[in-house]
Amino acid sequence: SQQGEEDPQALSIQEGENATMNCSYKTSINNLQWYRQNSGRGLVHLILIRSNEREKHSGRLRVTLDTSKKSSSLLITASRAADTASYFCARIGVDSSYKLIFGSGTRLLVRP
Amino acid sequence: DAGVIQSPRHEVTEMGQEVTLRCKPISGHNSLFWYRQTMMRGLELLIYFNNNVPIDDSGMPEDRFSAKMPNASFSTLKIQPSEPRDSAVYFCASSFGDWGDQETQYFGPGTRLLVL
């Protein structure tokens, strides 16, 4: 399958805790992106990390990329109930400059 | 600024009927993407337009599916005839860049299609 694997498939945490989601892929990438999807809604772009970057921050989000292991992680610190959503990693491979290949997603539930 | 606009938001139709989904990309964006999301297959790229020209339609399932982009502010995805297995959420996304330099895509709210 071209899709990346995301781990875990589902995650339930208490408000205030940190949430970590992982994404693995098989082929070399140009960049990797994380998106959020609230139930019944479209996808919202969160952060993009390029293949020559190792870590990136945006507010309470921290993304890491390990190209040697072909993996990325998304950390949400001090989670809030409003963070409840599905989170997808998506990559643009070196063989295609525009084609986003989405992972299967992690469903995050933040309990108030 | 308005984001990507899709219509209708929901569509229920009977097998064999023609379905037309519409998308208005963000003004100034020159790339447009149609995706399909199902539980079984996740998010799949159906077709990609750059400067109104179809660049990659390899994801279009079969001849029943067609897409057009007559101008920079409008695109349609048509299914004729529709089948129950076409039931899914269809997303339109837009971005700015050349076909060789694409980054962030902005997604519309999607059209939830149910074919009975």
Structural account:
The complex is a heterodimer of chains A (112) and B (116). Chain A is mostly beta strands. In chain A, 0% of the residues lie in helices and 58% in strands. Chain A has no helices and eleven strands. In chain A, strands 2, 4, 5, 9, 10 and 11 form a six-stranded mixed beta sheet that branches. Chain A has a five-stranded antiparallel beta sheet with strand order 1-3-8-7-6, with no helix packed on it. In chain A, strand 4 and strand 5 (43-50) form a beta hairpin. The radius of gyration of chain A is 13 Å and the shape is globular. The model of chain A has no long low-confidence stretch (mean pLDDT 91). Chain B has 116 residues and is mainly β. Chain B has strands spanning 5-7, 10-13, 19-24, 31-38, 42-50, 53-56, 65-71, 74-79, 88-95, 106-107, 111-115. In chain B, strands 2, 4, 5, 6, 9, 10 and 11 form a seven-stranded mixed beta sheet that branches. Chain B has a four-stranded antiparallel beta sheet with strand order 1-3-8-7, with no helix packed on it. In chain B, a hairpin with a 3-residue loop joins strand 4 (31-38) and strand 5. Chain B is globular.
Present the secondary structure layout.
The complex is a heterodimer of chains A (112) and B (116).
Chain A: E1 5-7, E2 10-14, E3 19-24, E4 29-37, E5 43-50, E6 55-58, E7 61-66, E8 71-76, E9 85-93, E10 100-102, E11 106-111
Parallel strand pairs in A: 2-11
Antiparallel strand pairs in A: 1-3, 3-8, 4-5, 4-9, 6-7, 7-8, 9-10, 9-11
Chain B: E1 5-7, E2 10-13, E3 19-24, E4 31-38, E5 42-50, E6 53-56, E7 65-71, E8 74-79, E9 88-95, E10 106-107, E11 111-115
Parallel strand pairs in B: 2-11
Antiparallel strand pairs in B: 1-3, 3-8, 4-5, 4-9, 5-6, 7-8, 9-10, 9-11
